């Protein structure tokens, strides 16, 4: 089995290297797509050299991106997923029996086709769920078009490079807020809380220009640089209510391996060095020498 190495370098002199069998590689209209068979993480999807998801640790990411906003809402019926081509986010959304319609808008059809072929366990049988509508379009164009409001909008995008950049800008956040129902929630992945503080600050600052209430929360993803990953939860009034989330998860029979009500609450407790990186003009970069 011929193996090949690839690595992500989030900072000068820092590399997270992986070695596995390269099963497929291609340039789509939007990005370079690689699929690896990795000895520890199993089938792994890599876009433009950045690990997106793997069979073994995808639950760490998808449970926090999805269950935190979905269990913050009393009865989410209509849900929008932007990005998420591998299907893992859509699958977690449809685990909530309150959902009557879930729309996924992924820009790159090849990501979904290759994920279904090489990493089928991540999306599972979500593609056949009658509540699911899968569209291949730019999420920014979709959200700016007219349409019904959503109870929850989840942005499972790649990092703010290439096609993903527009999903971190103020006009997109503003339009997401307009497309939410009154008690609706928005969530998104915002990158490494340690290595990508510039991106985290940009996403948080831009979201605050659109939503009345924005909170950063944290989780762990073993295939992402630095493992400690950040997410946004936004809406009119973001109340972190772990007892309510627990009751809703029991009622909806949500089975999770990472998410639980204690983690739901703890995820919003930010270390000082991350909280300070959110402020305007904040000194970005945990490793930036403090004057
Ligand atoms: N969890 C991963 C992460 O944190 O890096 C993201 C996984 S998911 C595969 C990311 C998806 O966002 C990709 O399939 C990419 O094609 C899609 N995407 C990027 N920009 C987009 C846009 N403007 N509209 C819709 N989908 C987009």
In which order are the strands of the major sheet placed?
8-7-6-9-10-12-11
Largest sheet, strands/sense/barrel:
7 strands, mixed
Structural class based on helices, strands and sheet pairing: alpha/beta
C-alpha termini separation: 51 Å
Radius of gyration: 18 Å
Oligomeric category? single chain
Ligands in the model, by name, code or SMILES, are: S-adenosylmethionine
Task: Give the overall average pLDDT.
Answer: 94
Low-confidence stretches: none
H/E order of the elements? Answer: EEEEEHEHEHHEHEHEHEEHHH
Number of helices: 10
- Beta-strand share of residues: 25-35%
Helix content: 25-40%
What is the count of β-strands? Answer: 12
What's the shape? globular
Commentary on this structure:
With 291 residues, this protein is of the alpha/beta class. 28% of the residues lie in helices and 32% in strands. The chain has 10 helices and 12 strands. The chain has helices at 58-72, 88-93, 109-118, 120-123, 139-144, 170-178, 197-208, 242-251, 261-266, 272-275; strands spanning 4-11, 14-27, 32-38, 42-47, 50-54, 78-83, 101-106, 132-136, 150-156, 180-192, 213-220, 228-235. The protein has a 7-stranded mixed β-sheet with strand order 8-7-6-9-10-12-11. A 5-stranded antiparallel β-sheet has the order 1-2-3-4-5, with helices on one face. Strand 11 (213-220) and strand 12 form a beta hairpin. The longest helix is centred in the N-terminal third of the chain and has 15 residues, at 58-72. The mean pLDDT is 94. Bound molecules: S-adenosylmethionine. The site of S-adenosylmethionine has 27 residues, from strand 5, strand 6, strand 7 and helix 5.
């Amino acid at each position: 089995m011929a193996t090949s190495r690839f690595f992500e370098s989030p900072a000068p002199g820092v590399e997270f290297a992986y070695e596995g069998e390269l099963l497929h590689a291609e340039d789509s209209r939007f990005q370079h797509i690689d699929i690896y068979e990795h000895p520890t993480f199993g089938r792994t999807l890599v876009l433009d050299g950045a690990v997106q998801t793997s069979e073994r640790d995808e639950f760490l990411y998808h449970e926090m991106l999805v269950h935190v906003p979905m269990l913050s809402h009393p009865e989410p019926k209509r849900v929008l997923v932007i990005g998420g081509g591998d299907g893992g986010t859509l699958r977690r959304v449809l685990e909530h029996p309150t959902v009557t319609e879930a729309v996924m808008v992924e820009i790159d059809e090849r990501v979904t086709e290759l994920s279904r072929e090489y990493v089928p366990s991540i999306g599972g049988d979500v593609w056949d769920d009658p509540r699911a509508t899968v569209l291949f379009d730019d999420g920014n164009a979709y959200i700016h078009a007219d349409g019904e409001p959503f109870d929850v909008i989840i942005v499972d995008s790649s990092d703010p490079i290439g096609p993903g950049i527009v999903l971190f800008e103020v006009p997109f956040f503003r339009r997401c807020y307009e497309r939410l129902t009154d008690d609706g929630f928005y969530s998104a992945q915002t990158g490494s809380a340690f290595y990508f503080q510039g991106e985290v600050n940009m996403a948080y600052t831009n979201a605050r220009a659109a939503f009345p209430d924005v909170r950063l929360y944290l989780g762990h993803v073993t295939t992402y640089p630095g493992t400690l990953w950040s997410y946004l939860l936004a809406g009119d009034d973001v109340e972190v209510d772990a007892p309510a989330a627990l009751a809703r998860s029991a009622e909806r029979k949500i089975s999770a391996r990472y998410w639980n009500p204690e983690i739901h609450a703890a995820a919003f407790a930010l270390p000082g060095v991350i909280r300070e990186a959110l402020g305007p003009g904040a000194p970005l970069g945990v490793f930036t020498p403090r004057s």
